[in-house]
């Protein structure tokens, strides 16, 4: 636990001092240019991989970078409300759905009922990515290749969640008017490479 407190002390004495003027400005207002929807995985660090400063990204993180379909509800909707706030209140210009390699959430799509019995909320959440599993299961050869199945699942999930975003009326309207960009990124943890989804060619292309 002590290393967490030491980190806070180092931030206060070094990082904060270096960016003091920026933080003073951010203390009054935020104007992020992008909404970053990423996995909660500890290995994915949005500001690190985009080289952005505090105040540039509005970040949503959850298991498997999932975006629920739009719906009006009296429930407490965490991801949905954060998307709404970013688009309607902060007027972000871009929405990035960022998936990654070796995603435990995507892997859990193929777990048995018994394996998920102890994580009922995770199981329920991943129903939002079920169409991805159904697509993969239609390809017997792909189901036999665990490595290929893994990265294809992770990439198809990104595209699936990009499509979910368009079920939000206010996003669809801005997207059709070219007032907001929706990007899909695939991050390879072991190499540091990031691939952007090309909507025309329907493939992920390395950002170079």
TrEMBL record:
Cofactor: how and how many bound: Binds 1 zinc ion per subunit.
Catalyzed reaction equations: hydrogencarbonate + H(+) = CO2 + H2O
Gene3D superfamilies named among the record's database cross-references: Carbonic anhydrase
Claim: Methyltransferase is one of the keywords in the record: no
Cofactor(s) essential for the protein:
Zn(2+)
Which keywords does UniProt give here? Lyase, Metal-binding, Zinc
Judging by the UniProt lineage, the source's domain of life is Bacteria
Family annotation (CDD domains): beta_CA_cladeB
Alphabetized PROSITE patterns for the sequence: PROK_CO2_ANHYDRASE_1, PROK_CO2_ANHYDRASE_2
Say which family it is in. Belongs to the beta-class carbonic anhydrase family.
Question: What function does this protein fulfil?
Answer: Reversible hydration of carbon dioxide.
Name the record gives this protein: Carbonic anhydrase
Species per Swiss-Prot/TrEMBL record: Marispirochaeta aestuarii
């Amino acid at each position: 636990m002590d290393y967490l407190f030491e980190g806070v002390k180092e931030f206060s004495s070094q990082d904060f001092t270096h960016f003091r003027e920026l933080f003073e400005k951010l203390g009054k207002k935020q104007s992020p240019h992008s909404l970053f929807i990423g996995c909660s995985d500890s290995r994915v660090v949005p500001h690190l991989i985009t080289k952005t400063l505090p105040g540039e990204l509005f970040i949503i993180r959850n298991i498997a970078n999932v975006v629920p379909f739009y719906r009006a509800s009296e429930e407490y909707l965490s991801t949905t409300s954060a998307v709404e706030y970013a688009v309607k209140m902060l007027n972000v210009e871009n929405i990035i759905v960022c998936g990654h390699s070796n995603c435990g959430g995507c892997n859990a799509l193929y777990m048995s009922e018994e394996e998920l019995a102890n994580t009922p909320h995770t199981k329920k959440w991943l129903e939002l990515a079920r169409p991805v599993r159904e697509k993969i299961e239609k390809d017997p050869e792909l189901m036999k290749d665990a490595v290929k199945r893994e990265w294809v699942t992770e990439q198809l999930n990104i595209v699936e969640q990009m499509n979910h975003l368009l079920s939000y009326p206010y996003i669809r309207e801005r997207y059709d008017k070219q007032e907001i960009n929706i990007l899909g990124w695939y991050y390879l943890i072991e190499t540091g490479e990031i691939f952007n989804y090309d909507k025309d060619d329907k493939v992920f292309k390395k950002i170079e």
